[in-house]
Amino acid sequence: MSAFQELFGVEPEATASAPGRVNLLGEHTDYQGGFVLPTAIPQRITVSLSRNGTQEHVLHSASTDTTLRVLLGEKGKGFAPYVTGSLQLSGVQEGLNVLIEGKVPSGGLSSSAALEVATLRALRDLFNLDLDDVELALRGVQVEHRFVGVKCGVMDQMASSLANTNTMLLIDTRSLERRSVPFPAGAEVLVIDSGVPRRLAESGYNERRAQVEEAARILGVKELRDVQDSGVVEKLGSPLKERARHVVSENARVQQGLQADAAQFGQLMNASHASLRDDYQVSHPQVDELVNLLQAHPQVFGARMTGAGFGGAVVALVREGRAGQVARDVLAQYPRGKQLVPEAAT
Fold it and tell me: Which of the listed CATH numbers 3.90.1150.10, 3.30.230.10, 3.30.450.20, 3.40.50.80 matches domain 3-179?
């Protein structure tokens, strides 16, 4: 008997899954029309659905053994809005049983996007929705904006919907054009959780977005992606100058990374972290400590925080075949961390 049948007494009518993602370069640029370079991680979230003939949704998270009941038209609390928002935006007008299995670690690896994309994929199958993978990702973004309260860009949902673990995915977040980009030769990806939890809607994420939007308005451009001369941002007052400087320089780093070898790509990651720490001010002292340990390791090309910040995970580009060794060495000095991607992402 399946876990779904044990819980709900019937087999699911649809099941789908989606991966988390880690971003190598291009942080906090996607809501300014910029460029990003994420890749999918092995960890996935699976969502199974069935109709239940009632006026409420019954949502169960296997990882926390938590069941939530939410009436039609309500969004609920906890993890519910990621699911109920997906249901409401998809026009679901009947109660569903929902089982969420698997786990994408929270904190910079897009666990919420994976949940949204998996839910929307299952809904697409159950109700034969006319949604391609890009439209599905954009619907996930609307879930974040309208139901969760995070004014995110499009990267997380696009990566969860379209990326794989074998390549990076270059996304132009304005046009939504994308293409696969190989990892630098001789390198693999290591992801470590800093042990510092975060909550985006309660952090400075929305404040940062408002600041760069104001910077773009003052500079007379639609988005900071349109700034051609990085020197113009120096005319802004603080903190808008620093916020805009990060976005403009980060877009440039993504472009430089497309032709970089492993050593050059690592240096770009190091510079990205410094910019996120100093100009965008979204890092955390413990995250910086972990990044510093990684950057100092002889088998590491470069390392940075990943995700929106204020805690969460860090990502390192390490010499191929050495991720396990690097993780053991670093975690011996940083015991509150946890290795999240134990094998090469390449």
Answer: 3.30.230.10
